[in-house]
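Ticket #4471: structure export looks truncated?
Reporter: QA, pipeline team
Priority: medium

Steps to reproduce: submit the single chain below to the structure queue and open the exported record.
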Amino acid sequence: MHLLLETDLTPLLEPRPGPCISLYLSTSGAATAAQQGPIQWRNLLDQATADLRTRGLGEAVLTDLLTPLETLRDDPSFWNAGGEGIAFFRAPGFTHSFHLAAAFADRCVIGDHFFLKPLLPLVTPGETFYVLALSQNEARLLASNGRTVERIGEADLPRGLTGALGEQKTAQTLQFHSASAHLGTGHPAIYHGHGAGKDDAKEELRRYVRQIDTGVRKLLAGSTAPLVLAGADPLPSLYREVSGYPHLVREVIAGSPDFLRHEELRDRAWQILEPDLQGARRLAAERFGELLGTGRASSDPAEILPAARHGRVESLFLACDADLWGRLDEATETELQVHAAPEKGDEELGDAAALFSLRNGGAVFGVSRGDVPGGGPLAAVFRY
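Actual output as written to the record:
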């Protein structure tokens, strides 16, 4: 199962020779997926085959495109990978898939680019964060987008204090850490041993967190997402002393994290971060309200689609629970046709607006229709 991050969309945004096949299906656990998944998959492939044939593709092209998908129907590893939903993307020379902790309506969409709209609620800009759970037994690095959580980089972090220091780990280190973990934050640490023993114990813990930090910096290189520490003193304090990650959060999830599930750590971190993480979406909505009527904001798809194509969209809200089918006259970019149901040559206009906005560095917020500023299916703030 995979936690979807904004960077995961990058290969799906690139222009590719069509046709681009996007398949979405829901699963409800490995057992059901293994039984029902192949049936759902067969139905989606039948839809894809029929659609591709209406486009005039020859049998050789069809075989090349669909054979890799056909083989997955009987692949147990594909159906037992976990998650609640599968998103699968296929184009000539390109195949990519995600097993995600989110259910999707079964859907097959074929077009000149991949259909990304069902993924957008999972990658709200600015809501990615990390949790580093520190204890003598292990160091866990978790990535979350506020809804799902995933452990990452297990092989890059030391396997606890023993894994980091081996036989060099001293008895004082164990006593020092155990006493502190028992007391939790807000209490002075109790040191067993005297003089050099106490100093040696603290230095060995410092060596341990340095090894952790080396792995964390490798895993989070280039990231600007906040990192929340969880643990009993002195580990969070020592980690803060040595850390090279510039986006450490001041507040700590106090106490030993050993018996906290990933989801519990995510929820506690979200409580700390929620006011700041939801700021990007709130500010974009406020900016829409301030600029509406000035030419710098619009809820009219006929204005938004051309603006997205030309890189003018600074931020875009789109309703992911409603479709808007139609097509823009690419020659004039002045005539937009909107249809109640998809017609030949149509594309889902919200998805197209999101694709071009993302390609050009715009922020895209996939929300329910009631959360789109202005109450329509689309709303955008323009750069100029």
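Status: closed, not a bug. The export was complete when the record was re-opened. Leaving a note from the reviewer for reference: Residues 6-121 form a domain with the Translation, Eukaryotic Peptide Chain Release Factor Subunit 1; Chain A fold (CATH 3.30.960).
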